[in-house]
Design brief:
single chain, 200 residues, alpha/beta, Rossmann fold, 6-stranded parallel sheet, 10 helices
């Protein structure tokens, strides 16, 4: 694929009758896209209507593409590079996955949920567990870095649209849970607690 073609992928293609599993992030080992591709490879033949789209750019592009080619999954997995309006990609997808080996407070996870996407994320040491309420608005996968565990949880949601819909309805709660007003109120409460730095 020519560089200009993937850089121009600002609008998500509409493929009639197909479903999209979306991942977003820098193509770097810490993001675990190699693990995600392994997991999707375990599912692809059972879910022929599903595609995995990975949005982002980085030093691992060539090795990830080689992994996809070796698995003969080029028809179902696409590395689209950078895109112009990421919100369009969230809204054109059916499920979001975060496969990071380590993570902070993930902006992409928050964005996906705010757009009403059900999410599946590795329960790494920090980050996703502060955002995802497992079984309510998403699913946390343990152990982290385990492609088989990730595949098992993805397949459950890929096979059950009603489960995806139920999680999606609650996912948008992050708009309020992580709003500036709510965060500022929590800081105020913390700073005015007995023994807080402001009280010393």
């Amino acid at each position: 694929m020519a560089a200009d073609s993937w850089r121009a992928a600002d609008c998500p293609p509409v493929r009639e009758g197909r479903l999209r599993l979306l991942a977003v992030g820098r193509l770097h080992p810490v993001k675990g896209f190699d693990i995600l591709i392994q997991a999707f490879a375990l599912l692809a033949k059972y879910f022929p209507a599903w595609d995995l789209t990975i949005v982002g750019e980085g030093p691992e592009r060539a090795s990830l593409q080689a992994q996809i080619d070796e698995l003969s999954l080029g028809s179902q997995i696409e590395l689209v590079g950078r895109v112009g309006n990421i919100r369009d990609w969230y809204e054109a997808s059916d499920l979001y996955v975060l496969s990071s080996r380590t993570e902070g407070l993930s902006n992409t996870l928050l964005e996906a949920m705010a757009c009403g996407l059900p999410v599946v994320a590795f329960d790494c040491e920090t980050g996703p567990r502060e955002i995802v309420r497992t079984g309510i608005d998403g699913v946390l996968v343990s152990p982290a870095e385990d492609p088989e565990a990730l595949a098992a949880h993805l397949s459950d949601l890929m096979a059950h649209p009603s489960k995806r819909s139920a999680l999606a309805k609650r996912a948008i709660d992050v708009r309020d849970r992580f709003s500036a007003t709510r965060i500022m109120a929590q800081w105020e409460q913390l700073l005015h607690k007995p023994g807080s730095p402001s009280k010393r």
